[in-house]
Design goal:
About 20% of the residues lie in helices and about 30% in strands. It has helices at about 55-65, 85-95; strands at about 5-15, 30-40, 105-115, 120-125. Strand 3 (about 105-115) and strand 4 form a beta hairpin.
Length: about 140
Amino acid sequence: MTYRTTVTRQFVAQHYLTVPDPGPEGDLHSHVFSVEATFAGPSLGEYDYLVDIDDVRAALDGAEARYRDATLNDLPEFEGYNPSVERLARVLHDRLAPAAADGPAETLRVTVWEDDEAAAGYEGPIVGAAGGDADGDG
């Protein structure tokens, strides 16, 4: 059995894909990204929370401030990478996971919607979580 807590956020950011023959996605363009951060774990903490939603909101505030109206290609965390929605999901995971590191949540799945029809995600361990470790193997 697993508990799950999800917090969402939207922000506008720009990017252009850097792959061969990207078509129109190779031109600078904007998306209204919708981010879903879903924390999961088998137990609740002292106050029957999986994660403190206020802590997650604060982490999302920081992520939104960083990426809102930014061109992802220009940011150091995307240097050397194609700034795909998949890569954005991984970057956001690594930025949001510390919000739950002191609690019972063990994994974080970040899903990023780039429009109403297309999304990509990344799921991984929360380093430092009760029951988890840096290798993510329990």
